[in-house]
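Morning. Coffee machine broken again, so started the prediction first thing and wrote up yesterday's gels while waiting. Chain of 339 residues, entered below exactly as on the submission form.
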Amino acid sequence: MNSITYCGKCHTLEKDQYYKSVHNVQLQKNNPDAPTCIYCHSYELTPISKLDGVTLKLNQEKLCLSCHLDDKTGKTKFSKSLIDYSKSVHGQAIAHGNANAAICTDCHGTHDLERQSSPTSKINRKNVANVCGQCHPGIAQEYKMSVHGIALIQGNPDVPTCTFCHGEHNINAVVDVPLKMFTDNKINPQSAIKTKMIYCIKCHGDETLMAKYNILPFSKAHEWLPELEKHNETVRCIDCHSSYAPPNLSHNLLPPDKTIKKCEECHSKNSVLMTKLYKHEKEQSREKYGFINGTLLSDAYVVGTTRNVFLDSFAILAFAVVIIGIFFHSLMRWYFRRG
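Came back before lunch.
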């Protein structure tokens, strides 16, 4: 009698979950490294050990990585990206004592581990938003309302999910985009990384992929926009394509007919752009230099957004005086030359 059958006499739910798992698939193939109840629970993993939450999570993480870490000390080499988990936002958070930080089991499950290709797997692309939503419920809901979330439900196999933009194990990862795609779309690669446009360009700069869904590629979709290169340097895709009514839901990407396409919506006093693109820059500048200095030194400037009615009136008056002066001067020269 193996440990699965023996432990399953009491832990029937866990036994049933294990039988459906990828670990059991390996066990049935007589893989000597396939984990069983005894192998995993030889680590202190459960609250009955009376360890604090952080230590329990670190133990769970060490257990998974003892097999899955792509390292010389690991038993097997399954996932190269796991080597970067400790450098990720989640890995750093648990290392600094945050017991709520996500570890392997939070995303992959415990006894019911399944391959990504399985429709019931927690990490199947259709279920990823639900998994991330356990910790990020508001953002997950935004995504589900977006054009991407709706397309995912409709069965689009190419639409991005949380992990496409944010990475899997290395949450800080940057996607790989061919240099030609940047030049074709008049985008500076470093600016794209800074503004996070690189994730959008990965798909929307791909003419073949866009043609598949009858969507205009980035360059053609923005032909109407003057000074495209300058816009690409400073304006993020989400500033025009996400919800721009407060509270500015950046993951709720809107359909084309609801995005900003009028110059005056950005280049006017109190424009919607100032409440999105430059809001955080202005706040950070004021915190760093003080309110007055931060306001003066801030580089948050958009043509048309900083207009002053009195200065406008004064400029018009000054212009009129100059024109009248030139006319009067010319008239006097003409008059006295006659004499």
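DSSP finds 21 helices and no strands in the chain. Going to sketch it on the whiteboard this afternoon.
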